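Inositol-1-monophosphatase, Paracoccus hibiscisoli. Tokens?
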Amino acid sequence: MLDVLVPLAREAGALALSHFGRLSDGAVSAKGPLDLVTIADRAVEALITARLRAAFPQDGILGEEDGLTPGTSGRVWVVDPIDGTFNFVRGGRQWAVSIGLWQDGVPMLGVIHAPALDLTLTGGRGHPPQINGRLLAPLTAHAPDRAAVGVGLGRAVPAPERMEMLRFLTQDAGIMIRCCNATTISLIELALGEVDGHVGFGESAWDVMGAWPILTALGAVSTMDGAAMPLSGPMRFVIGKPGLVQACRPLFADIGP
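Tokens:
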């Protein structure tokens, strides 16, 4: 599968790059407050969908922009054509193409490509995690005295709950927070050891499906372990090093195992 997915992610990234820094006002529209979509998002998703449908005709496809096209195999490809569209529009480099394979509630395989950062990560069940063709080292032990976590603050979660999450992390748990406004990039930072975890309040399946199987193969755990990952609806979770996840578990007492 990776022989199809890696070239596809890079082709999609090249298409996105052809629009990067060249968007006219008419090429950008709003789906909601601070939630943008561009002609690049739609073109990249159309490309990925067409290639996946040709290579895996029995599989379903879920795209951020076009929704779910069911298949007959029980497998679903989950696509975020440009995760970090706001950054993309503003000229920031923190955005990525994400393709993940979901089966029976489990993220099985992922490819994420951040073309502006020249990073391609792959991995999942039966596929050791790699970055730009080199094996990634497993996650190291958690060091509480210098803990850092990426955060995602989806608007689907009420503002008071988002603010309480930030208060808990910075005051109660004593964890440095980072927010790059692109979940896939935050999860890449976790894979590279730049942070110890990611706390998501309101992410969707397409935000995480490409990176999730890579991270679990590196030794990450989460508050969603043991439960099926949904394809619809906003999610709340923490994923990362076991010690970091344990420190954040009070935020998820009502949903975690």
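The helical segments are 2-19, 39-55, 85-90, 159-172, 183-191, 205-208, 212-217, 242-248.
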